[in-house]
Write a structure and sequence with these properties.
73 residues, 3 helices
Length: 73
């Protein structure tokens, strides 16, 4: 991305916690979908990898939404 375009994209400080929470939720949902697909096709490695990833992404999502609602008040 050019420097001109980077300068045009600005996120206000009050919106940053919301963006963090949405991105974390997207990552968590992606892990859930990957795990479900792996379970459907019987791919044990894919399912186990998704479950392992959820151990890290779910707390991230929980904390980011908590931070968002704390900052919102």
């Amino acid at each position: 991305m050019s420097e001109e375009k980077q300068e045009k994209i600005k996120i206000s400080e009050k919106d940053k916690p919301f963006v963090l929470a949405v991105v974390a939720s997207g990552i968590t949902l992606t892990c859930i979908v990957i795990g479900a697909i792996g379970a459907y096709f019987g791919n044990k490695d894919m399912t186990e990898t998704a479950i392992e990833a959820l151990k890290f992404t779910f707390p991230l999502t929980t904390l980011s939404w908590g931070f968002y609602f704390k900052e919102k008040k």
